[in-house]
Amino acid sequence: MPRVIDMAVQGCLSKMAAALPSRQNDQVVYHLRAGEHRIALNERIGEPLSLRWTGAIACTHCGRATKKSFAQGHCYPCFKRLAQCDTCIMKPETCHYFQGTCREPEWGERHCFQPHIVYLANSSGLKVGITRNTQMPTRWLDQGAIQALPILEVDTRQQSGFVEMLFKEQVADRTNWRAMLKGDVEVIDLNAERDRLFSLLANGLSQLRETHGVDSIRTLEAVPQHFHYPVSVFPKKVASHNFDKQPLVEGLLQGVKGQYLILDSGVINLRKFTGYEIQIS
Ligand SMILES: [Zn+2]
Question: What InterPro entries does the database record attribute to this sequence (predicted)?
Fold first, then answer.
């Protein structure tokens, strides 16, 4: 029976909601979010999807209209003013709270002076990353990781940055998004990688513990998690859509992975267009 076509909905894009399935080994459950609307995506795979940018962008923080989006959906004044848009968020080892120059010290205390996790993940191969422990597993799903293993817990975001810097001597901290989207990522023995890295980096880790306190960097005993994404066809060649260049993005939805929609006409990273006002049908 032909499916009843939904009416078009319109709203400003938020990051897609990605949730673990209720049963292990089932696929990650995605919802596209635009304004108040939540569109279940898993059940639309194999069907046509059309997204049209109206030309408007609203700042995700203050709601003001902005011609250009900064730091994934902010207007320029918010981008310059908010602690969450400061470069120390991307490079936590450069935290400058103790110099008294944090843009929003109270925000920093709530978000950065909280336990953080250092993890190993496999999105396009082995990588190291950090996240607040409340952001697991969202962080991994947003990266399109097929596996993840938390390995260390630290007291602050800055400490997680120091640990990550150390691990970057041995392992990547970036995802190759094209490789991630092509889907032929090989499974890695994350426990073995953790043990290998702990032994390679033993000196560096004990130095960090000396500096920050023996208990500040705690080894975790976790089990690797596996994630399965709702993708029916992985692209062989990865071409990407961009609302700034072509406001109409349409095609058959073939899958969702990370924050990307995979259409038969190309892929689109929706996170990049947070705040864009989109008509969806
Ligand atoms: Zn703003």
Answer: DUF2797
